[in-house]
Amino acid sequence: MKTRAAVATAAGKPLEVMTVDLQGPKAGEVLVEIKATGICHTDEFTRSGADPEGLFPVIFGHEGAGIVVEAGAGVTSLKKGDHVIPLYTPECRQCKSCLSRKTNLCTAIRNTQGQGVMPDGTSRFSIGKEKIHHYMGCSTFSNFTVVPEIALAKIREDAPFDKVCYIGCGVTTGIGAVINTAKVEPGANVVVFGLGGIGLNVIQGARLAGANRIIGVDLNPRRRALAEKFGMTDFVNPAEVEGELVPYLVALTDGGADYSFECVGNVDLMRQALECCHRGWGVSVIIGVAAAGQEIRTRPFQLVTGRVWMGTAFGGARGRTDVPKIVDWYMDGRINIDDLITHTMPLDDINEAFDLMHAGESIRSVVVY
Ligand code: NAD
Ligand code: AHE
Ligand code: ZN
């Protein structure tokens, strides 16, 4: 079949909206009509060329929601008409990682997904004879896409696609980092570096967890009002702090944060996020994705004296199990997604979403098909 898609032909170039060829689903695969997709900073990270795993040409997008059009041979858990959210972290429930119960990082299709192809080693997307890569196993910047069955969460049918698509990455990553990864307890003091599409969900998660002080750190003063609406108690603009940021944050938190979260992808901030944690027990969670060649640094003494450095992908969520529950939280009014979706646009205008992100204007832009 043919489908409209935004194709990234080379690193650093704007996306090109065009008609591409899409092969139907093979065994264990599902054809999905994408109804809406968010644009995450990770799409921009790879588009820019900063991602060491970046492959081109490719169809980006990993924050979508849609409807099953056709289930391939052997698919048992989904049927035509089901509403779904594609998962860049699948959940096969059979691999060593899934069975360990220690991680959400299912390994069933990790290798081929990283190579931009389906589990059988081939791509479903092409233009004539030229192959186009899949991205993170999702490629939601295409009106129709093919996704493995184990990488689709079935969701309730009354949930609006243009809102719950954000659960496909940003919402789950931010809230999950607090609840699943850090396991923030009531009364804890939390510092969040970066108040964009991920950081604001960390704030919302910290409020759900019953945190006491929730301190937001961002260079963009326009983030303040929305962050306060989501539960931030104190705003710190590093550009306005006299002297060093770390001692300032340590003083603000009576000796250091119980938990900190880096939601930018900047290795210098990752160090500050660790070092503003409380001696003896502070936990710092890396969420941001840093460019190729970057490395984190700190004095080992920071860890010797009890601080813990950890990271999280997709908020530690097991997608097929957890995503339908997060959709319920949204539908029950327990979490706010609407206020974070600041812009919507048709696929033809998708490059505007990247411009808005760079200008610090948007939290989440959503393409509605
Ligand atoms: P975003 O562009 O919406 O937000 C980034 C925020 O960081 C902005 O508010 C910006 O003003 C702020 N910022 C930039 N430089 C700063 C600095 N030096 N000090 C303080 N604040 C600064 O991005 P996003 O979509 O929220 O994504 C954030 C990061 O999380 C990205 O690196 C993205 O790739 C990563 N991410 C990781 C996962 C995961 O599973 N680990 C999932 C989604 C996104
Ligand atoms: N390819 C990058 C790593 C990118 C990365 O860390 N991706 C996260 C999801 S970000 C979502 O917005 C992830 O889940 N990684 C786990 C995995 O298995 O890819 C690089 O730097 O090489
Ligand atoms: Zn993402």
UniProtKB/TrEMBL annotation:
Enzyme Commission number: 1.1.1.284
Co-factor(s): Zn(2+)
Sample GO molecular function, one term: zinc ion binding
Domain of life: Bacteria
GO biological process, one term: formaldehyde catabolic process
SUPFAM superfamilies: GroES-like, NAD(P)-binding Rossmann-fold domains
Protein family membership: Belongs to the zinc-containing alcohol dehydrogenase family. Class-III subfamily.
Name of the protein described by the UniProt record: S-(hydroxymethyl)glutathione dehydrogenase
Protein source organism: Steroidobacter denitrificans
